[in-house]
Amino acid sequence: MSVRRLRRSALLFAAVTMIATPVAANGYREKGKQVVIAGSTLRVTPPRDWNLLSIRPGKKAETWTLDGEQLNDVTWYAGIAADEPLVREISRKQKPLPKLKQSTLLVEIPELLETTYRTERQIGDFQVTGSAPDPFLGQPGIRFSYSYVDSDHLPRRGEARATLIGGKLYMATFDAPRTHFFDRSLSDFRALTDTATLS
Amino acid sequence: MIAFARGAAALVALLAIAAAPIGKAPPPPPYAGIYQPQGVDEIGAWREADEDERALANAPEVIRDEALNGYVRGVLCATVGKDRCAATRIYVLRVPVFNASMSPNGTMRVYSGLLLRVRNEAELGAILGHEFGHFERRHSLERFKAQRTGTDLLSWAAVLASMAPGYQARAGYNTMRWSVYGQLYHYGRDQEREADLLGLGYLNGGTLRPQAAASVWHNVMAEVEASSRARGLSKPRYDLFAFSASHPPSAERAATMEALADPQGDGRDDGADRYAKALAPWLPTFLDDQIKLNDFGASDYLIAMLAEPGWTPRLWLARGDLYRTRGNPRDLVNAAEFYANAIAADATLADAYRGLGLSLMKTGRPSEGRTALRRYLHLKPDAPDAGMIAMLAPAEPVEP
Amino acid sequence: MYVGRMLAVAVAAVLSLAVVDARAQERTAAKAGFELPAGSGKTILVFRPTVSVGAQSTGGMFEPNGDWTEQARKNLEAALAEQQQRLGNKVISAPESYGADAQLVAEYAGLFAAVSQSVINYQFFPGNRLPTKKRDNKSSVFDWTLGSGIAALPGAKDADYALFLYNKDAYGSTGRKILQVMALLGPGINVKSGEHAGYAGLVDLKTGELVWLNADNAMGGDVRTPEGAQKRISQLLEGIPGSTAAPAAAATPVKTAAR
Lengths: 199, 400, 259
Description:
The complex is a heterotrimer of chains A (199), B (400) and C (259). Helix content of chain A is 21%, strand content 32%. Chain A is α+β, with helices and mostly antiparallel strands. Chain A has one domain: Mog1/PsbP, alpha/beta/alpha sandwich (Protein Transport Mog1p, Chain A, 3-Layer(aba) Sandwich). With 400 residues, chain B is mostly helical. Chain B has two domains: 2-267, no CATH class; 311-392, Alpha Horseshoe (Serine Threonine Protein Phosphatase 5, Tetratricopeptide repeat), CATH 1.25.40. Chain B has helices at residues 2-19, 39-57, 66-80, 82-85, 112-117, 121-136, 139-163, 167-205, 212-230, 242-246, 251-260, 272-279, 283-291, 296-306, 313-326, 329-345, 350-362, 366-379, 386-392, and strands at residues 89-93, 100-102, 107-111. Chain B has a three-stranded mixed β-sheet with strand order 1-3-2, sandwiched between helices. In chain B, strand 2 (100-102) and strand 3 form a beta hairpin. Chain B is elongated. Residues 1-21 and 156-187 of chain B have low confidence and may be disordered. Chain C has one domain (23-236). In chain C, 36% of the residues lie in helices and 19% in strands. The radius of gyration of chain C is 19 Å and the shape is globular. Chain C is of the alpha/beta class and 259 residues long. In chain C, strands 1, 2, 3, 4, 5, 6, 7 and 8 form an eight-stranded mixed β-sheet that branches. At the B-C interface, helix 2, helix 7, helix 8 and helix 10 of B face helix 1, strand 3, helix 2, helix 3 and helix 5 of C.
């Protein structure tokens, strides 16, 4: 999710340090081939081809896309533990991000994602539009939807699935511009997350 | 480098004291009327501002509520007068940041975070008048020219530093960077002082209480201190807030504002009641936008400030949400108490039952928690999270 | 915050180095099978081009210049009309819109920018190309769309294609040029003087497909003069498949992804 900003700062960093570092290549996630998410025990077998972006939003997260993260962004959060933020904190002291708590309930996960987006992107317009119980990774889970105006002024919609296993959060989010892109790939996101398993 | 910065800050403070005026701010000069930009830099800046305004007018962040827009415009007009007011287009933006700004072509941006923080028309007028002062004195043009000189120096320093590689040169570049920014910073201070003077001049000549300007600065400082304290920072970080970064607050500044205010204006109305009424439809939204920013200290301070005239169910609810989302065990106990206060004052506030129920479930009182959650579902059967809550608190045959 | 941004801007501007060889990057691509030959009787709806012209100070700061911008806008619009006449197609300006219509136009302009940015980042820039696009590229596929909802834009029902244009020109000031020379002679740093970026895209107003995109960060033609604007427009519109837009002045050849 924060890939957009990270990418920008990575390019700036390359310019500043005057190092012509080749940007690490983006990964290929081929149809039908099982892959592991962010070195965790979460495994996915994509029903169609996807791309893995080389820049990760956090140690335990990775972003997949079809056309670029501005147009369709699937971010996996694999085993976020208590007192950890969803994504990498730019400054722990000056701009801390919300943390998952030992006591956080599944019904509060949409609030955690909302406060993370708002804090990280300084946006004012974010709404959780619905949530309902729905198993994820074979466990009791939650599926929820949301809409917001992102920091690039483009209105976006999102859907997410999450579950808490042994106090750790496993979640997949799908974010896309509300015009065309959200509807076009929502079924791809659903089919993709249906293949997710924990070993 | 730190020592250098400290030295610069001391110098700036000294200058501020030396330049502090003694009496009340004079009335502003007669308004020059419709102004047309002159010179390459200014005409260019206006053109850019016009283009920006075209985009701004259709931006999704703009709050298009006619009543709110009309009200904010009314406060600006009451502060700077009809003639000056006519030169301005106001855009209220849903951005939870304490700030307001004015472009050279007369576009004024008022952020929802500002509306949440001021408590009456006089305080809002003080901020809007200050920004109008920058506009009237055409400060953005001067600042642009100063920035250009500043970045020019930096470019040369960067090239020179890399010509003589080694630690020493790098250190030199870093020092240079500090001094150039110190200059920019100082330059801004002069303009700030001028805008303060003009802003108070408008207020003195208007109908609102000019003493409100000083209280804005006291509140800004108190909020930043509360925020920094809650984050465990050793010193208040004014630069982390948009408004206090560009408008450095200080005790001297507040004192200057105090001195500039016409003592005879002290008995005037500050419009607190009218302000509260005009903001009422938006306050829950703006408050929610703030407490979800993960800035516990600032949010807690703001809620307490808003509660000065008296606690409302909405404010108790907001405080409950703030403590529940921080989520330490003691926070959850406090949150339950705040939600209970909200319910005691308004037994139909559905969201307070939700917060109460979740807080109780997490603090070892699940059966009471479920009762509260069922009450939430009863009051708000179409809630977006009804399905999730129903799973936590399955319905009982008899509604409690 | 303000100081931090200033720093980022200054440092990035000072050190706008040629990290990547610009020539390795592709600049134009079109959807397979798309053609816009002369006399095809198509109508092109032009949305208000984004035009910004100014100077670049020694520090790399953009100094907007109102007169230049106004001249450039006039010149570019005239050049566009003339160029399209030569192409044998009708060019109409999008109607000025208000309220909800204007907001819709703004949202589509934002979406076009997001799509263009993705094409530039993930298709034109080979080192960063998305693997799925890489594979697509091999079979000459350029597959990007804004969605068929674009047909609801004001003026869309009277036209076949929408043309979006973006131009930003910053002419290096004398100070910047001296810095450029010194930096090259001294430490051998390549400091960029001036910025001449432009991109143009054609969107099918029935399907929403991006049928052609041309994006270039180093454009020619001084848009402050009518002749320069002619050259710029012919460079911007160069590579529309099927068009025989003979460039008014010599233009640099570009690689095309869809060949």
